[in-house]
Amino acid sequence: MLPVPHDQTRGRYIHETARALSQLAQVRVFFQQASYPRIPGLSPRSFLRGEVGPDYTLDGVDVEAFTYPALPGISRATNGWMASRALVPRLRRFAPDIVLAYWVYPDGFAAKRAARHLGVPCIVGARGSDIHVRSGLNAHMTRHTLRGLDATLTVSHAMRDTAIATFGADPERVHPIVNGIDTDVFHPRDQQTMRATLGVPADARLIAYVGRFVEAKGMRELLKAFQALAEGDPTLRLALIGDGVMRDELSGLVQATGLGGRVTMTGGLEPVQVAEWIGAADVLTLPSWSEGYPNVVVEGIACGRPVVATAVGGTGEIIHAGNGIMVPPRDAEALQRGLADALARSWDAEALSASVSRGWDDVASDTLAVCRQVLAVRSQDVCLGRA
After folding, report:
1. 102, 242, 308, 322: which has the highest count of C-beta atoms within 10 A?
2. Per-residue pLDDT reduced to its tens digit, 51-89
């Protein structure tokens, strides 16, 4: 998962990690992409479809993109195997000391199988719904991937607990590494300046959402809560920043409410533009059904804005009474109350921002430390004849 022209929000934090890690080690990123037949009705329903070619580049990263054949739903059990077949010769040419993959299945499975084929250790990093939203075959393949890894990385302690309790990961080999942010981008900005730049009314009360447009992000609950709040507040506005498979549905729902003039859908934006919208807002919201460690929540706080988010995954490790409000997932009325409370309170933007300081260099250093630990154990096993 990496940012692509048709979806700039996808895999942004993996890109940041790879870019920072590339300053500490020789890194090559292999971008695995499922290639679906261009037949109506056979498009994936969980993300925007599209592939990048071998000319794909990414700032600060040595990247090689490739595809493997897939069919939505039908090939779910074989995607990891097919990806690994395409990955092995590429890894062999690079000859790595260690393989690090993000997103447990199919990407992590493919990386693990390819690494075993080459006789090198493998670490897999989980991001969120690849642990928290798994069932059926996906759950089985996730369990198969996590068992026997040299190490597993999670973005929160809550996710670590789930990886161990639900999927059988070895507790001694699961390492929480919390995401970072780019404080050069995400910092307090003058609200009225941002509003003048973005065309937001100076007297508006603006709620911002940043993320993918998918059902599990609580998009329908957000629109329902906004509609109820907007009925009693003519100054209320909503900015939906991102893109996804629900884009057309959301646009239709907005028009059906008669609030089209008060809802802005920006599409996917670069981080600086995202920070400008957060700076223009009064409140950031993330009503997801599940999360790993939602970086957008940290980015919102770094920009000096309170966050109203659902109490899922690692969100509770970020939000407290001084920087936001947590509500139960899938509950539009609770979300409405949380947003109304956040909009009514006074928040200290500078104090909010000052509480957030972890950067991507910290993430890279922590990640490299785990890599070195794994390599040291492997070296010892080789010396003792255990590998």
Report:
1. 308
2. 888 899 999 999 999 999 888 767 788 899 999 999 999
Range of the domain at 211: 191-354
Does residue 2 belong to any structural domain of this protein?
Answer: no
Q: Please give the model's pTM, rounded to 2 decimal places.
A: 0.79
3-class state of residue 241 by DSSP: strand
Q: Which pLDDT value is given to residue 106?
A: 92
Q: How far apart are CA 233 and CA 75, in angstroms?
A: 49
DSSP symbols for 363-386: HHHHHHHHHHHHHHHHHHHHHTT-
Give CA–CA dist 87/212, Å, rounded: 28
Q: How many CB atoms lie within 10 A of CB 35?
A: 12
The SS3 assignment for 146 reads helix
Separation CA 332–CA 338 (nearest Å) = 10
Total domains in the chain come to 2
Q: What is the CA radius of gyration of the chain?
A: 21
Q: Do residues 290 and 330 both lie within one domain? A: yes
* Co-location of 267 and 166 in the same domain: no
Report the range of poorest mean pLDDT among 3-7, 97-101, 251-255, 258-262. 3-7
Quickly list H helices, the chain: 12-21, 79-94, 109-118, 129-132, 136-146, 157-165, 191-198, 219-230, 247-257, 271-280, 295-302, 332-344, 349-354, 360-383
Question: Residue 329 has which token pair?
Answer: 């997932």
SS3 206: strand
User: Domain holding 219: CATH number?
Assistant: 3.40.50.2000
Residue 267 domain flag: yes
CA quadruple 321, 322, 326, 332: dihedral sign: positive
